[in-house]
Write a structure and sequence with these properties.
Shape: elongated
Order of helices and strands: HHHHEEEEEHEEHHEEEHEEEE
Radius of gyration: 50 Å
Structural class: alpha+beta
Distance between the termini: 184 Å
Amino acid sequence: MKKERKLNKTEKLCKPNVGAPSCGNTRKTDTTVLNLNQNKAGITLVALVITIIVLLILAGITINLTIGQRGILRRAEEAGRNYQEAAKREDEQLSNFLKEADDIIDGINGESKPLPENALAKKVQIGDYVAYDPKEGVTDTNKLSYKSEVGTGSSHGNGYTDIPEGQTFTVEANTKWRVLSKDETTGEVVLISENPIHEFGMKGAIGYLYAEQELNEICKIYGYGRGANTSKTFTYETGDTVEGLTKGTITGSGARSITAEDINAITKYNPSNDEAMKEEGYGQEYTHTIYHPTKTTDNGASTSATERTDKFTAYDYEGSQYLTDATSPIYQMLFGSSNDLVYGLASRGVNSYSDNAGFSVFVVIEGGVRGNGSLWRQF
């Protein structure tokens, strides 16, 4: 009986595997397989770690985009604030627009907003003294002085050859100011100096041609102090009424020269209703051949007599005829307590007659408004 040899464990495992490696390499094969399995496990672990890192990076990016300094939530919050601010600005603009519209409508309807109780126009009375300092707040001191040159017919001036170097005027800080008029609708308060501010010389044709301008230029230097209404625009005229008038303006200053028309508005005087002045010739036109003021010559006078028609526009009247209370503040401010005030007015007139004419500048003197004193006259 043939005795079979018992296969060992290794041989049983190897024999059925046709084409498999020889059994002599079993350990090596086992070892190789084991190493391959270990490499596969290592790759899987590295991939996992990389995946986790990538996820962490993505999570960090997502978190930063969501709640970071410039994240979605911060931007949304900022956008919300910007919207609220824009809405607030829009509401303010709309409110201002509606207020302006109301003011325009009120102006059209002749209505006005009431002034606050502490407004200057409500606190002062006509004749009250007001502490106005024309130098306060003025940084450009050049505005506080003016030089009036003698001038020529074609360039403005005063024509006063007694002072050939011209007349220089500088703001006097100690000037006393009184309330001449007030408007409780607009809040405007008009002041007048208690006494004439300066002595001023004008003469001849040049003085007549430019009297309104020169008087306004001198007074302008007082209109820059704190509280002055520098948005005002004042007008004056230069030249000859027949040859042609030129309109000039004073801007940036709150002060100008007082005029005959200013006083007439207070006294209620109307020369067209003054029978005595009409009898003298007021409002009449006369044609005559005369020398006359002109801007075309150096001395301001025409070189030959010219036939022309001049209208009588000068007049004069007593202040007491229209302001009967000579002790009132308004009378004393305009004409003086003893009719001793003398000052020039930025208004001109013509005394026209059949054979001659006188060209005058209005003044206040001896308690009245006078326009019949010729500054320049040619027969």
